[in-house]
Amino acid sequence: MRKGLTTERPTPEMEPLDLNRPAVDQIYAALKGAILARQLAPGQAVSENDIGQLFNSSRTPVREALSRLRDDGLIVTLPSRGTYVSKLSEQQIRSAQFIREALEVAAIRRLCQMDLSARAMRDIEQALAAQRQAIVDGDRKAFRLHDDQFHSALAAATGLDRLEILLMREKAALDRLRVLAITDEAHMARLLSEHEAVYDAVKARDEERAVEWLRQHLRRVLGILSQIYEAHREYFD
């Protein structure tokens, strides 16, 4: 058995599938949420049969959901050993951060040279307002959700169809680190203030200031990577 892997299979609580929505989307979202919440911990075995029974689902949507999670880097399949929740990898985290920053900086530069549409401004401002409310409520899960919405809204505002997809895929490698990093309201407030600074600079078409704030924001999690490693060594390769 590979170091740090376990065949123990916990059964996280899952909502019943909504028959009016695609099963694969629901299974993927539920399993991803369980991995981010560490209900399925790094190194934990993932069984296709168990998941099918858990959701009362056929194999096809389960396999497709697992394929998506594999593409996200959240699970790994080892020949003759099985499928496991992947361990966190510093190399993978730094690589994903590098690619994400390159894409988002290019997006911000493009936005600073455009007139933001009314819809784009509404979507960005709604995400910011929802983050403020999440801080008031002390709801870290909601804050992360609306954090994602803010970055997605910026990507969508560029009008480049595939940009949001590419960003979300690279960000998936960072999501578990973000969950471990956001520990209190003060940290959430710092992240929100950086979002607001980026947006203000974009509206002012101040390209260099927008890029400076964005880079500071995106690199924040790398600044505490060593602390997270020391606190959660069992989650890392």
Automatic annotation (TrEMBL):
Entry keyword annotation includes DNA-binding: yes
PROSITE patterns (UniProt xref): HTH_GNTR
A Pfam family matched in the record: GntR
InterPro entries: GntR_C, TF_FadR/GntR_C, Tscrpt_reg_HTH_GntR, WH-like_DNA-bd_sf, WH_DNA-bd_sf
GO molecular function, one term: DNA binding
Protein keywords: DNA-binding, Transcription, Transcription regulation
All residue ranges annotated as the HTH gntR-type domain in the record: 21-88
PANTHER family linked: TRANSCRIPTIONAL REGULATOR, GNTR FAMILY, UXU OPERON TRANSCRIPTIONAL REGULATOR
Name of the protein described by the UniProt record: GntR family transcriptional regulator
Organism encoding this protein: Rhizobium oryzihabitans
